[in-house]
Design a protein that fits this description.
The chain is an alpha+beta fold. It has helices at residues 18-22, 56-60, 78-85, and strands at 7-8, 28-31, 34-37, 66-67. The strands form two sheets. A two-stranded antiparallel ribbon has the order 1-4. It has a two-stranded antiparallel ribbon with strand order 2-3.
């Protein structure tokens, strides 16, 4: 499954560069238009992303211009359901 990269609202971004400094992966470049995520499929907690990433770019953004989507995966565990019914 391909990673979903953080989304930047360029109207909110003031170009401060805090996201670039905070990224432990070195996967953000600041351009004239704002931050660009260069991490591709190895980002967002996949096997190629260091565990210390934690998507800190969203946390450090003072204007709220960066948002990180996530996917909730529900697992149906029949063994748990059966043990509760017993």
């Amino acid at each position: 499954m391909a990673a979903v990269l953080p989304v930047v609202d360029h109207e909110l971004c003031d170009g401060c560069g805090l996201c670039v400094e905070a990224c432990p992966c070195g996967a953000i470049e600041m351009t004239d238009k704002g931050p660009v995520f260069t991490c591709g499929d190895v980002c967002l907690k996949s096997s190629g992303c260091p565990s210390e990433c934690g998507l800190v770019c969203e946390e450090v953004c003072p204007t709220g211009a960066i948002s990180c989507s996530f996917e909730i995966i529900m697992e149906d565990d029949c063994s748990v359901r059966e043990s509760k019914e017993s």
